[in-house]
Design brief:
The protein is α+β, with helices and mostly antiparallel strands. Helix content is 20%, strand content 29%. The chain has 9 helices and 21 strands. The strands form 5 sheets. A 6-stranded mixed beta sheet has the order 12-13-14-11-3-15, sandwiched between helices. A 6-stranded antiparallel β-barrel has the order 16-19-18-17-20-21.
């Protein structure tokens, strides 16, 4: 996913402060309000904290920033933020054929998942092309949540279930994730749910009590600074939890936020429909390690993927020379000796590394580290270099 920048220090966070800010702002003058444009249980609090804009993601609103990019980037790397990422919608698949249906969509073998586990899975169509890159949560033996990026993947599952007559239920539950991200996320979560949450391993989850209701807390998130995602169930009570977290984290410099373009690009966190497009295979997206190709686990696209394991283009980190670049709204062509050899899908100023970092899809002829290329940018043609690895930790 890609949402833009992050927030500034809107952190004198008592309920009265946020309620006052919210009352002072006329929401109807900043965006149309319609029933079909859904909002999470945290949207009002996040909006009150000063969201500067929104995009539509899975028919929901997600903030695109709260303050200047570098300030937000620094804050994420030093403190803790609350992210309303309720647009990460869940597809619940349950019933005797649930595991079979999920497996049909992915070449990653899910048979060894345990009930507290999360899997990052590439999902593919019958030809082996990407349909999404969700996080799969196993809640029980016959019950899964597929936490999706921006696409109508639920229709694929519904179509397969109906066409094959599977004994399964496929629906979208009222679940809205809340991100708790940053190096102080452990301390904040422990103040609300107890020190045991620090023992949750990466890509594992546990049940915690949210004001009397058990909910799923996973050690995951769309940053590499550490943290959690709480899968908030229901339509009410989100504002209460938000205020509790804000109050508990006052001395931790907690504030509202959203995924940070600079932090995620420098770390190589991919965005479906930006870096990963529906004409790409998992191998082109650099996700081959999540594909079990020794034997077919039951994926409809497995046979097609057998013939696509050696890609002729692939995601690569690229450093673009020069001053900071303008925001990116289209693919930027990559050339070498006058011939197109790829495209830039996401870029940023990687402040800690004092460079322009980018994610590119590059032809095999030019993807070796150290290869010099040129990038067409809105600021003109820039020299660039293929890098061996992304800049941030992951």
């Amino acid at each position: 996913m890609i949402f833009g920048g992050l927030p500034g220090k809107v952190h004198d966070n008592a309920m009265n402060h946020q309620t006052r800010d919210f009352a002072m702002r006329d929401i109807t003058t900043t965006m149309p309000l319609t029933v079909r444009m859904r909002r999470s249980p945290f949207w009002a609090r996040s909006h009150a904290a000063g969201a500067q804009g929104y995009i539509v993601y899975n028919n929901m609103l997600i903030a695109t920033g709260f303050a200047c990019g570098e300030e937000d980037y620094r804050h994420l790397k030093s403190a803790v933020q609350l992210w309303d990422v309720g647009c990460e919608r869940q597809i619940e698949i349950s019933g005797p054929d649930a595991a079979r249906l999920v497996q049909m969509s992915t070449p990653r073998d899910i048979s060894k998942m345990v009930d507290d586990q999360c899997f990052y899975i590439p999902t593919v169509d019958r030809r082996g092309y990407m349909t999404n890159d969700p996080v799969l949560l196993r809640l029980d033996e016959d019950r899964y949540w597929v936490s999706i990026a921006d696409s109508d993947l639920i229709l694929y599952y519904k179509g397969l279930a109906a066409g094959l007559g599977l004994d399964v239920s496929v629906h979208e539950p009222q679940v809205a994730p809340l991100g708790i991200q940053g190096p102080k996320a452990d301390e904040l979560a422990a103040r609300i749910w107890g020190a045991q949450v620090k023992d949750i391993r990466f890509f594992r989850h546990a049940r915690v009590d949210v004001n009397g209701t058990p909910m799923v807390l996973a050690r995951s998130g769309y940053s590499v600074q550490g943290g959690y995602e709480l899968y908030f169930e229901g339509e009410t009570g989100g504002d209460i939890l938000w205020d509790q977290l804000m109050e508990a984290g006052r001395d931790l410099d907690v504030c509202a936020g959203c995924p940070c373009q600079a932090e995620r690009v420098e770390a190589g966190l991919l965005s479906y429909l930006s870096d990963i497009t529906p004409d790409m295979t998992p191998f082109e997206a650099g996700l081959g390690r999540f594909c079990d190709m020794e034997r077919d686990p039951g994926c409809l696209g497995w046979d097609a993927l057998q013939a696509k394991q050696t890609p002729t283009r692939q995601i690569r980190p690229i450093e673009i020379a020069g001053d900071p670049l303008p925001p990116q709204g289209t693919f930027w062509p990559v050339e070498a000796e006058g011939q197109r050899v790829g495209r830039i899908s996401s870029s940023c100023r990687a402040y800690d590394f004092d460079c322009n970092a980018a994610i590119g899809l590059i032809d095999a002829s030019h993807w070796e580290p150290g290869t010099a290329v040129q990038v067409h940018t809105p600021a003109g043609m820039r020299e660039a270099e293929i890098k061996e690895k992304f800049w941030g930790k992951f």
